[in-house]
Amino acid sequence: MTGTPPRFSDDFCARLRDAFLAARYDADGVLGALGPPAHSALGRGEPEPAFRASRDAGTLGTLVRLFLLGGAESRAETAAALGSVPLDDAVATGLLRADGERFRAGLDVRPHGDEDTSWWIVSDLDSDVLGEPVPVEHVLGVGHASLSLVRATSRRPVGSVLDLGTGNGVQALHAGRHAASVTATDVSERALALADTTFRLNEVEVELRRGEWFAPVARRRFDQIVCNPPFVVGPARVDYVYRDSGLAGDDASALVIRQLPGFLTPGGVGQLLASWLHIRGQDWADRVSGWLPGGTDAWVVQRDVADPGLYVGTWLRDAGIDPRSPEGRAKSAAWLDWFAANEVEGIGFGFVTLRRTDATPTVVCEDLRQAFDDPLGEESAAWLDRVDWLRSPGTDLLGTTFTVPSSVLLERIDAPAEEGWASSALRLHRTDGPGWTHELDELAAALLAGCRGALPLGDLLELLAFAHGEPVEELTATALPMVRELVRHGMLLPSGADRR
User: Fold this and answer.
1) 289: part of which helix (H) or strand (E)?
2) Please, are residues 120 and 110 in contact by the beta-carbon 8 Å criterion?
3) Deepest in the core among 23, 98, 247, 250, taking most CB within 10 A?
4) How would you class 1 by CB atoms within 10 Å of its CB: exposed for 0-12, middle for 13-18, buried for 19 or more?
5) Is the pLDDT score of 134 beyond 80?
6) Quick check: 332 and 323 in contact, CB under 8 A?
7) What gap in Å lies between CA 336 and CA 463, rounded to an integer?
8) Backbone dihedral region of 249: left (phi > 0), alpha (psi from -120 to 50 degrees) or beta?
9) pLDDT at 242 (0 to 100)
10) How many Å apart are CA 313 and CA 110, to the nearest integer?
């Protein structure tokens, strides 16, 4: 539902907050009322178990049916659940909509939390609840992309954070946990209105500014910037504000990556989701690294690559459009024609961590499509720490004693041979973080076996060269690039350093 952006007064937010708290309409309360099986089913888009579980949950069950399940509730049940919030005011603000003698949600208001805090996120109803495609000005709820960026963002304390393109405000809420001040921007007036409601409902102070891209914060600098931009790639159009930039191809991601470092304080960090085209004859890593301005460290993690046909179908369904319908087929045809004309073979998606630096920049683009559960936020901060250590003028790799963390394993793959088994591959595997792997040879494995914090790397290389009859200079020249990469990946650490 679009139209006039909803405006919730402080008094209305206070009354609504009191009603939610009284009913225990929070992340833990909903899980407790529904139970893990029904809660999991709801997350899969299967509401019936949650409907059944909510029947015996009193006012909490009413709120669950209203705001999470798209149900229609009686006047008496709705009034009881909303406490001191007058139903007429709830309808006037857009929180509820009348459906005959019953009431339905006019907005999506759902609990969201981390390990220590529970909030409420206000957004528009999705297409399943509306029963039709979402409007152009639709403000998206907390989806998989939002959650993945939450998990990929460093939570080290900082002075200031910019949430560029805030949408419903979820990134700014999390930023408020580790930042002294938070600024949030969006081009959409409706998004800012709903984000403002989210912040006031949760009693969180965030500076809001409206405008395109970085224009609202011109000439300002921030210690950290987070951004979940409208990164859908394709023709230059805006079907939906939350996902379409109006720029062709992957130009939206390119714009953010090019401009973001200029709005960081020295040493400041930016973290964003991004998409990039895989074009016939081009390397995706070269494409993305070519967007970077000077003086920028960058860690680009590719988490997925989608076939154009699958990509188009996924985003059509996301908006509530059946790809088999005449509208769906027409949109698919135009989209796929654009991909074909631009020789697009796939669409990459992933996380980008940027840091403003005065040192010689380190730029790494990695394909990490393997499954892993560890969030990247802590890892991205540690990755930057390790980059700093590697290029510090005081770092002497040969004079450093190293250890292999306990989370790193050596996998040996043996194949049948004439005399039994013969090793065909040695693979170093980090079992936490992104699950990096490195192929090794026997000499490298022997070198790492000696990294137990006792002897400096230079001494280990001399011993290894003597034992295997290898020139120490050649062995050192071969080993140092490998050591640097293993350190960067947290698979080899200076003695006494944190495991990451």
Assistant:
1) helix 284-289
2) yes
3) 250
4) middle
5) no
6) yes
7) 59
8) left
9) 74
10) 27
pLDDT in tens, 90-133: 999 999 999 988 999 999 999 998 888 899 999 988 877 777 77
CA pair distance 125, 402, nearest whole angstrom: 54
Cβ(151)–Cβ(375) below 8 Å: yes
Let me know: does 197 contact 191? Beta carbons within 8 Å: no
Cα distances (angstroms) measured from residue 452 to each of 395, 396, 404, 430: 19, 17, 7, 17
Decide if pLDDT at 88 tops 50.
yes
CB-CB neighbours of 422 under 10 Å: 10
What's the whole-number mean pLDDT along residues 137-156?
89
Q: How would DSSP label each residue in 293-320? A: PSSEEEEEEEEEEE-HHHHHHHHHHHTT
- Map tokens 């990556």 to a residue: 257
CA distance 177 to 150: 12
Residue 314 in tokens: 């996924």
Q: How far is CA 94 from CA 103, 122, 124, 154, 396, in A?
A: 12, 11, 10, 35, 63
- 97 in Cβ contact with 91 (< 8 Å): yes
Q: Give the strand order in the sheet containing 493-494.
A: 452-456, 401-403, 493-494
Phi-psi region of 255 (alpha: psi -120 to 50; beta: other; left: phi over 0): alpha
Q: What is the rounded distance in angstroms from the CA atom of residue 280 to the CA atom of residue 346?
A: 9
Give the mean pLDDT of the chain: 90
Q: Which residue has the tokens 């993305």?
A: 288
User: Alpha-carbon distance 153 to 183, whole Å?
Assistant: 16
Q: Using CA atoms, how far apart are residues 498 and 405, in angstroms rounded to an integer? A: 9
Total Cβ atoms within 10 A of residue 306? 18
Those residues whose C-beta lies under 8 Å from the C-beta of residue 239, and which sit 6 or more positions away, are 136, 319, 331
| Close Cβ partners of 333 (under 8 Å, ≥ 6 residues apart) | none
Burial (CB count within 10 angstroms: exposed 0-12, middle 13-18, buried 19+), residue 72: middle
CA distances from 101 to 95, 219, 388 (A): 16, 53, 64
Beta-ladder partners of 164: 185, 227
DSSP 131-156: TSPPPTT----S-HHHHHHHHHS---
- How many other CB atoms are there within 10 angstroms of residue 375's CB atom? 17
Q: Give me the half-sphere count of Cα atoms (radius 13 Å) on the Cβ side of residue 198.
A: 36
Asked if residues 342 and 277 have their Cβ atoms less than 8 Å apart, the reply is yes
Q: What are phi and psi of 403, to 5 degrees?
A: -130, 150
Nearest residue to 208 via CA among 223, 224, 229, 193: 193
The pLDDT of residue 499 is above 50: no
